[in-house]
Design brief:
Blueprint: H1 10-22, H2 26-38, H3 43-52, H4 56-59
Helix pairs in contact: 1-2, 2-3
Length: 64
């Protein structure tokens, strides 16, 4: 089913973030969570979403 992205809610994006995290796709999870946070009107909730799905490129440590 194709949906108009304008109709998606914060909860829809957060569901997608959870699915991507479960599929070991942390960057996609982060992007979806960021969209969920931007669509959330409560700043505390938005901060919690961002803390749960941090940018993996900012927290990645180089090995080697």
């Amino acid at each position: 089913m194709i949906r108009d992205p304008a109709d998606l809610t914060s909860a829809d994006y957060l569901d997608g973030a959870r699915e991507m995290a479960a599929a070991n796709r942390p960057y996609l999870a982060h992007l979806l969570a960021e969209e969920a946070a931007q669509r959330t009107t409560d700043s505390v909730t938005a901060a919690g979403i961002r803390a749960t799905y941090p940018d993996p490129t900012a927290t990645r440590e180089e090995t080697g």
